[in-house]
Amino acid sequence: MRTAAIIPAFDEADSLPRVLSDLATHVPTHEIVVIDDGSVDGTHQVATDAGATCLRLPFNLGIGGALRLGFRYVAEQRFDRAYQFDADGQHDASQVPDLLRGLDDADMVVGSRFAGAPDYRVGHSRGLAMALLRLLVYRVSGQRFTDTSSGFRAFRRPVVEFFSTEYPVEYMESVEALVLAMRQGFTVREVPVVMHDRSAGTASNRNLRLAYHFVRLLIVLVAGGKRRRVRTAGMAQ
Q1: Beta bridge mates, 189
Q2: What gap in Å lies between CA 39 and CA 12, rounded to an integer?
Q3: What is the bridge-based pairing of β-strands 153-156 and 108-112?
Q4: Higher pLDDT, 236 or 162
Q5: Which of 15-24, 48-57, 133-142, 223-232 has the lowest mean pLDDT?
């Protein structure tokens, strides 16, 4: 199977070399697609020097817009499957095969930090927000997840094609994308993974911004109802 890694990157020149090296070690046959999301620190040069395909955005669109471009490229190139991988060193390349094996009986697989390590720690306020999102996703989809915001995910081609035009571009897009996939009728499952702390750079955690997008996400999920198209993993080949 032709497999691609989709890596959105914004000013990740410090952490990206290690990430690309680890992927080359553990999954050397996969095509690496880096989406340079308007970086000004040499991210593009680091990616191309490592032999990755690098798609450059002229200005920062945010992770949702960068991922949609990555999905579009992978769909146009007719890859059989793809996975989303962080440029900051939090994801473990050695676990990519485990993530991809989940596609044997699902259209989309989410790598859960909490299924594999129930004592994984997050801050109190973040933990409450994540618990509320888990409850909300369950209420609107009927399916329980332990990690609705994980960015370590794998996709079969039909999901890639769907996300190439429909992937949400607003902040906190990962939860919305999860619900969109289920509403479309795709089969989604979790597998346990271990994640690391960010190896370089700074995470975006401005409280007012997070609060705004959290409220927006709640409205979007509730307003969307429980629409679901009938589709199965077998039909989505």
Answers
A1: 109
A2: 8
A3: antiparallel
A4: 162
A5: 223-232
Residues whose CB falls within 8 Å of the CB of residue 22, separated by 6 or more in sequence, listed in order: 92, 93, 94
Q: 65, 47 in Cβ contact below 8 A?
A: no
169, 217 Cβ separation under 8 angstroms = no
Domain count within the chain? 1
Residue with tokens 């680890």: 22
Q: What is the CATH number of the domain that holds 29?
A: 3.90.550.10
Residue 49 lies in a domain: yes
173-210 per-position pLDDT tens digit = 888 899 999 999 999 999 999 888 655 545 544 555 65
Q: Where are the beta strands (DSSP E) in the chain?
A: 3-9, 31-37, 53-57, 81-84, 108-112, 153-156, 188-192
Q: Which DSSP symbol is given to 195? A: -
Residue 236 confidence (pLDDT): 43
The pLDDT, as a whole number, for residue 132 is 79
**Domain limits at 201?**
3-223
Strands (DSSP E) found in 11-106: 31-37, 53-57, 81-84
CA 194 to chain centre: 15
User: Which pLDDT belongs to residue 235?
Assistant: 41
